[in-house]
Each structure stands twice: as C-alpha cells, then as structure tokens.
Design goal:
13-stranded antiparallel beta sheet, 20 helices, about 15% strand
C-alpha cells in the first residue's frame, strides 16, 4: 500500500471541496446566484473549458479516476487522496457529473455499478436501472387520437410518459452501504459546492444546449436554468445551479428517503403526470403515469455479473436488465475462434463487425428484464453457443443484414426467425472508472437517456428527469423480451466492464453511446488485447458499430481509413455516424484505467470526443509511459 506524502493529505471531504472548487484569484463571486445565471469568466488564465488543464492521460500510483469531465475527475481523485476508497470516489464523481454533465446524468436517471474487491477478488454489481410505473399500460406509447405510435421525436423523447422511476440515488445508497467508507453526505458535499459555485461552460455544453433549445424552451424551469436570458450559455461563462446544490444538501443530510418519499417525490410524480409547459410551445409533451408509490417502492438490485474468458483474461460485465455484459461477452466468445492479431487489420475488423451483428441479433431476440422475461444468460455466454454462431461468419464476405438470431435449442448453425425492432436507445450517457490505493475498482455507467433527458427540470430542484422508457419497444409484442410492462426495467446497452487476470485487476472501462456502447467497449478491448495498442491509443482510434443493420455506423475517420477495403474487399456498407460538428458524429466517450504490475496505473480518457475527457492519478509519475 502506498503512503501519501504529507502535502497531499486532506482531512475532510468538506475541506477538499473548498480547496478543489473555489475559483482562486479569479474575481468570480462564490456566493449563491440566481438559478441558471452565468458570469463571464476572466480572460486571463482561464480557458474556455469546464476546468482548465484537463488531461486525457495520467500515470502514477495510489489511485486513479477517469471520466468525461475534469471537475468530476478531480473531485474523485481528491476523495481518494483524503482516504476514501473506490466506491466513495465513484459516488462523488458521479454526483459531480450530474452538475457538469447534466444532459447525460444526474439524480433523475439510473445506471449500472460494477465493483471489484481486491481482498476477495470478487466482482459484484448493482442494477440501478429506471423502472416503468406500476400503472403504465402496454399501449402507453400509442397516441389515443391517431391509434398510432407517438413520433419518437419530439413526442416521446420530450414527455412525461417516457420518464422512468429514477434509480441513481438508490444506487449510491446501496453502493456506499456495501463497499463505501464514507457517508452519503460526505460524498455529495464536493458536488454540492460545485453546483453552488458553478462550472465553466465549454463548447460541448453549449452545442448540446443549442441542439436541445426547442425542447428546453418548452418547460419554464428548464428554460430558466439552461437558457438564461433565452439563449444557450456562452463558452467561458460560469453556470451555477443553487437549486441542485440545495437538493444535494438535502439528500446528504436526510438520506435518499428525501428523494423517494415526501415533498420531492410528490413533485416528481406530479410533473410526470402533468408536465408544466410554457404557453408558446408547440410540443405535445404526452403525460405519464408515475405516482409517489412508484418512487417509494423503487429498489436498486444486487446482481451477479456476467463473465467470459477471452485470451486468458476474465471479462466481467452487467447482466440483464442490461444487454451489455451478454452482448460484449458473446461477441468475445465468437471472436475467440479467430486469431485477430495474426490477420491483416482490415480482416480483423471485418470479423469484429460480423461477430457483433450476430450477438445483436441474439440480444434482440432474447434479452430483457429477467424479472419479467426468461433470459437465457448462461446459454448466451457459453462458448458452445458462440461457436454455433461463429459458423455463420464468412471470413471473406459480409453477410446480408439483418442476420437471424441463433437457435438456443438447436445444434450446429441453426437459426431462429425474429423481427428486428428499431433501435431507440439514445447516445447520451456518461461513464466513470475508479481504482483506489488498495486495488479496489469501480466501473459505473449512468444516464438520463436522451441528451437532456425528458427535457423537464423538476421546478426548484435543479435536475432533469430521464426519458429512459423510450428504450422499450414502442408497439407491444408479447414475443418481444423488451415489451412494455408495469414495473419493468427497459433493456439497456450500458456496459461497465472490469477485466481480471488470475484474479488480479487489469482493466476498468466503459462508455456512453446508447447501443454503440457495446461495440465501443468491445472495440477498445480488441484494440488492447488483440492489436496490442496502448490504452490511450486503443481509446483514441476511429470507431465503427455494426448492430445487425444494413449499414455500419462509422466515424468519418474510420471510413477514411478502412472504408474502401471493407466495402470493396468484404462487402460492408459504411455510413457516417452523424452530421459533422454534431454530438451524433462521434461514437462513445471512453473512460478507462489500466493497472500494471507493481500497482502502477494509467488512467485514460477521450482526447477529443465530447471535447475530451479527463484522467487523474493520486500520485502522478513522470516515469516511462505504460501501455
């Protein structure tokens, strides 16, 4: 165990919050300001970023944190410096992301928490996915006036009917009770201070605000917070959220009952059932079905992880209700049949694309909430089943998509017909990875679904509600494992992942990106394990995502590098992920940590995607770079 030098010791989380977050010598007032107010940051010494000096790679010892945001990563690493463990730091970092990345995460959403215990070598998880209200009918997404499904955009994504019962506060409580050393109040104190003092608006935040301005203007509380003066905050201004600070203070002092019961629960339920809109909006905003009882009875669940062995490494992930662990695991098992390192890169990428198409076919046919659906998790993760799927791959030619699901009861290459449903899972989510000085680790992916969630800020509380229920299949089909059912968790693609070798921690990673999360995590694993890239390089290289569709969703840089070969030699059809300059043009935003022999750590985040992430270590080292 490393010992912190005296200069890094901070005796309380309250003290570290003051040290880390109060703007020094900037002339910016730190007293509470009006909700959504912005103050122009001084020109000298302050970059147009949320926190100056963010870094995509950090190397050292004593603990590490990686996330999409510098303020959040620094809060997490200060918790580690103050003696907190990985769980303490993960909750503190997640809470901070709810302040600085409010369009991706926050207490109005849910997620999946994967924990590694260095003493026991065990990996355990918490399912904090949102749930459908108990009174939600199976035709909830059908417009009663037209008898047709609501248009996905804007009706469903901006609505009360899409809001699931949030799971994030319950996840924090359960994680701290199981593995933490600090109280909820301690872990929330830094983000409370961050919300009160504000963060610097960067280009990504401004762009996301502008992209959602029509939705945000539909709700008085949202407009007031995120469109002060009627416009998106300018880059370099400071956005404060004292309402959220007060909410976090209340949760810290009173516990999560202050969220799931009492006045706040009533306010959430009423807003979902009767969305408060501005007079001049044209958005329909269909109402939902949530009640205070739905909130009072919500429970985050202890869950066994998924596990597959790939090239001698044990890869752990999230079991259903997430499809992340089963689909990443099945893809790896399929690829186990090929020596990717011994092939030319473009052929290995062809095999990767074909494997994920097969795994996604099985995901669509078989994976849903196991409390409502008999999910064949063990069979999906068996090498025998993967081998039967691999026989459908032509090493020299892409199959016509979509491909059929595998027959669970068959042998050889038998398949089963099923209807491939449209993918409605949105790209906006966030992820954090933490390792502490004792070697404990957390991979935590959390979300509010759409960028900006439902678009509805809870009045006077400062946080957005999710629109996670859009992850259900809109039209009820009793054969569909992801059909709408009361109390059910919608299927997710979140894939927080921990990799061990002989019980020792090797890698912690995850990403946002909707259903592209699965392929992003898989591609980073292949880049690192099969192609031998350093962790920062494995994250930075261009990405492509094949999810059993006619075209391969690809970043433009991937098309430029591999498009001709994959199309002309193997028959794939590549299409850009989104319009240049928009959030949709990028695939994923990875945050990862590698632990090398001797306890050395390399924390790596995106160098450019989402404006670049931030990696921090407790004791930085100038030593030779680690792979």
């Amino acid at each position: 165990m490393s010992v912190l030098p005296p200069r890094t010791r901070i005796t309380s989380v309250v003290a570290l919050a003051t040290l880390a977050l109060v703007p020094a010598a900037t002339g910016i007032a730190t007293s509470p300001a009006a909700t959504g107010s912005t103050t122009k940051a001084p020109a000298a010494g302050v970059a147009a970023k949320k926190a100056p000096g963010s870094q995509a790679v950090a190397r050292g010892r004593g603990g590490a944190v990686s996330s999409v945001d510098a303020d959040a990563s620094r809060i997490g690493v200060e918790v580690l410096r103050a003696g907190g463990n990985a769980t303490d730091a993960a909750v503190a970092t997640a809470s901070a992301l709810g302040v600085t990345e409010p369009y991706s995460a926050g207490i109005g959403g849910g997620g999946y928490f994967v924990h590694y215990d260095a003493k026991t070598g065990k990996v355990q998880t918490i399912d904090g996915r949102e749930t459908a209200p108990a009174k939600m009918p199976r035709d909830a997404f059908i417009d009663p006036e037209t008898d047709e499904p609501y248009p996905f955009t804007p009706d469903l994504v901006t609505s009360g009917v899409s809001v699931g019962v949030p799971g994030t506060p319950a996840t924090w409580k359960r994680a701290l009770n199981r593995w933490g050393t600090q109280s909820l109040q301690q872990t929330l104190k830094p983000s409370e201070r961050l919300a009160r003092d504000g963060f610097l608006v960067d280009g990504t935040f401004r762009r996301q605000t502008k992209e959602n301005a029509i939705r945000f203007r539909a709700f008085p509380a949202t407009k007031k917070l995120f469109l002060p003066g009627g416009h998106a905050p300018k880059v370099g201004t400071r956005l404060r959220n004292p309402d959220l600070a007060d909410t976090l203070d209340r949760l810290g002092k009173r516990g999560t009952d202050a969220f799931y019961e009492g006045k706040l629960a009533g306010k959430i339920a009423r807003l979902v059932r009767n969305p408060r809109t501005t007079d001049n909006t044209d958005l329909p905003v269909p109402p939902g079905f949530m009640t205070k009882q739905d909130l009072a009875t919500y429970e985050a669940l202890n869950q066994k992880p998924t596990r597959v062995n790939y090239r001698g490494l044990d890869v752990y992930g999230m079991a259903p209700s997430s499809s992340g662990g089963t689909t990443v695991g099945e893809s790896l098992n399929i690829l186990q049949n090929y020596d990717l390192a011994d092939k030319k890169r473009v052929r290995a990428l062809h095999l990767y694309l074909e494997a994920t198409a097969l795994a996604f076919a099985d995901r669509g046919a078989y994976v849903g909430d196991p409390a409502y659906v008999d999910v064949p998790t063990q069979r999906l993760l068996s090498q025998d089943f993967a081998d039967s799927r691999a026989c459908k791959i032509d090493p020299d030619q892409a199959a016509e998509k979509p491909v059929a699901a595998g027959d669970l009861n068959g042998s050889g290459c038998q398949t089963k017909a099923h209807d491939e449903k449209p993918d409605t899972e949105n790209i906006s989510t966030t992820h954090l990875s933490v390792v502490d000085r004792w070697g404990n680790a957390v991979a935590y992916t959390l979300t509010i679904e759409q960028t900006g969630g439902s678009g509805m800020v809870v009045p006077g509380r400062g946080f957005l509600l999710n629109n996670e229920l859009t992850d259900f299949t809109a039209v009820f089909d009793k054969q569909d494992p992801n059909r709408i059912q009361p109390g059910k968790r919608p299927r997710s693609s979140m894939s927080p992942t921990i990799v061990l070798k002989n019980g020792d921690l090797q890698l912690v990673l995850g990403s946002p990106g909707g259903s592209t999360i699965i392929t992003t995590v898989l591609q980073v694993l292949i880049n690192k394990i099969d192609f031998g890239l350093s962790l920062p390089r494995a994250i930075a290289v261009p990405r492509a995502s094949q999810r059993n569709t006619a075209t391969v969703t690809s970043e433009q840089a991937f098309i430029d590098r591999y498009g001709n070969a994959l199309e002309n030699e193997y028959g794939h059809t590549l299409a850009p992920a989104g319009a240049p300059g928009t959030s949709a043009a990028e695939i994923g935003a990875v945050a990862a940590i590698r632990v090398a022999p001797g306890g050395r750590m390399i924390a790596a985040a995106e160098p450019e995607r989402r404006g670049g992430g931030d990696a921090e270590v407790v004791n930085p080292s100038p030593r030779r770079p680690l792979g």
